[in-house]
Amino acid sequence: MIDPPHGWRYGFPKPLTLGEGQSLQDWLIENGYPPAEINVFGIAHMPCRYWTREIEEPPPYELNAHDIGEGRKLILARRLIAALRANPDLIIQAQGENDR
């Protein structure tokens, strides 16, 4: 992570992802940091904060009865939509049934 001076104004701190052969100055400008801020200190003497953070793996997901029921409803809704697209007359028939 990198946090240049007044970085909060420009959406920092951000993960530092320098491309091959890319300079820090170009990367900062590309990520929204204004050149005028860089010129205040000069890129060689800019007091940026750097740190690393570990990315935790999410816990393994376990299905429960609610998830299974919601998945079932989604599958049935998709089948219904496919049937209606294949035969739009079903909507007219359903409206007739409702009117009765």
Could you describe the 3D structure shown?
- 47% of the residues lie in helices and 4% in strands.
- With 100 residues, the chain is mainly alpha-helical.
- Strands 1-2 form a two-stranded antiparallel sheet.
- The model has no long low-confidence stretch (mean pLDDT 91).
Secondary structure: elements and pairs:
Blueprint: E1 2-3, H1 24-30, H2 35-41, E2 49-50, H3 65-86, H4 89-99
Q: Which class best fits the helix and strand makeup? A: mainly alpha
N-C termini distance: 66 Å
Round the Cα radius of gyration to an integer and report it. 28 Å
Order of helices and strands: EHHEHH
Mean pLDDT: 91
Oligomer: single chain
Regions with little confidence, pLDDT below 50 for 5+ residues: none
Taken from the alpha-carbon principal axes, the silhouette is elongated
Strand content: under 5%
List the total number of helices: 4
Strand line-up of the largest beta sheet:
1-2
Instruction: State the major sheet.
Output: 2 strands, antiparallel
Give the helix level as a range of percent. Answer: 40-55%
Total DSSP E strands: 2
Short structural summary:
With 100 residues, the protein is mainly alpha-helical. 47% of the residues lie in helices and 4% in strands.
